Amino acid sequence: MFSKSCEYGLRAVIFIAEQSVINNKVGLKAIAEAVDSPEAFTAKILQQLTRTNIITSIKGPYGGFFMEKEKLEKVKLSEIVSVLDGDNVYTGCGLGLSQCDAKNPCPLHHKFVEIRRNLKEMLEGNTIYDLLYSNGVENKFWLKR
């Protein structure tokens, strides 16, 4: 449902947030390795996320990528998806047809309407903090399974 860049981006933000909680800044190589993504591709994704202020980057020997703790509770998953995939995930045809719409629906159009609505609610209803903590308990992620 998401593009590869969006999948890598979501995983990268989760990894960066986990490291930020313990006051670690992480470099490009560590992020790419953690999310199992090519380094050059990861760099482009991180550039988009930095440009839109979802994550922060500091250059230099003590630099790296991090996420400010205040942002953990504010950044919704939908914001990350919007930056990396746009709104097509909510509006595009489930079969990828360009001519599919309410007036000229594909065979799956009406079924995808509900799926897209549920997806949008889930992405807008969850922040990075929600992924890191459930009921106040820290979750440990499994990014590299």
Briefly say what this structure is.
The protein has a single domain (4-135), classed as Orthogonal Bundle (Arc Repressor Mutant, subunit A), CATH 1.10.10.10. 53% of the residues lie in helices and 7% in strands.
Topology (elements, then pairings):
Layout: H1 4-21, H2 28-35, H3 39-51, E1 56-58, E2 64-66, H4 69-72, H5 77-85, H6 88-91, H7 109-124, H8 128-132, E3 133-134, E4 137-138
Antiparallel strand pairs: 1-2, 3-4
Protein name: Rrf2 family transcriptional regulator
Pfam families: Rrf2
GO molecular function, one term: DNA-binding transcription factor activity
Structural class: mainly alpha
Order of SSEs: HHHEEHHHHHEE
> What does the overall shape look like?
globular
CATH architecture: Orthogonal Bundle
Query: Count of helical segments?
Result: 8
Tell me the strand percentage band.
Answer: 5-15%
Low-confidence stretches: none
InterPro entries: Tscrpt_reg_Rrf2, WH-like_DNA-bd_sf, WH_DNA-bd_sf
Protein name: Rrf2 family transcriptional regulator
GO molecular function, one term: DNA-binding transcription factor activity
Organism: Seonamhaeicola marinus
Describe the 3D structure.
It holds the Pfam family Rrf2. It comes from Seonamhaeicola marinus. InterPro entries: Tscrpt_reg_Rrf2, WH-like_DNA-bd_sf, WH_DNA-bd_sf. GO terms for molecular function: DNA-binding transcription factor activity. With 145 residues, the protein is mostly helical. The chain has a single domain, classed as Winged helix-like DNA-binding domain superfamily/Winged helix DNA-binding domain (Arc Repressor Mutant, subunit A, Orthogonal Bundle). Helix content is 53%, strand content 7%. It has helices spanning 4-21, 28-35, 39-51, 69-72, 77-85, 88-91, 109-124, 128-132; strands spanning 56-58, 64-66, 133-134, 137-138. The longest helix has 18 residues, at 4-21. The chain is globular, with a radius of gyration of 17 Å.
